[in-house]
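Sequence in, structure out. Go.
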Amino acid sequence: MKDIILKIKGMHCESCSTRLAKVLNNQDGVEEAQVSLEKAEANIKYDESIININQLKEAVEDAGFEAE
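Output:
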């Protein structure tokens, strides 16, 4: 398992962070994703043999946010 913190742009409210956490947690290979509105970041624990950083960023962008 690998941990990564992605900076997230475009979250404006608690429902934004909740929705993004749900999207990330539903990705194959993601063990756990926690999204903080205050810190504007997503802390993701994932299996890099199943999903990679680019796919995680793509999932964030598909949800309507930007990932750095």
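Check: The helical segments are 14-25, 53-62. The first helix runs from residue 14 to 25.
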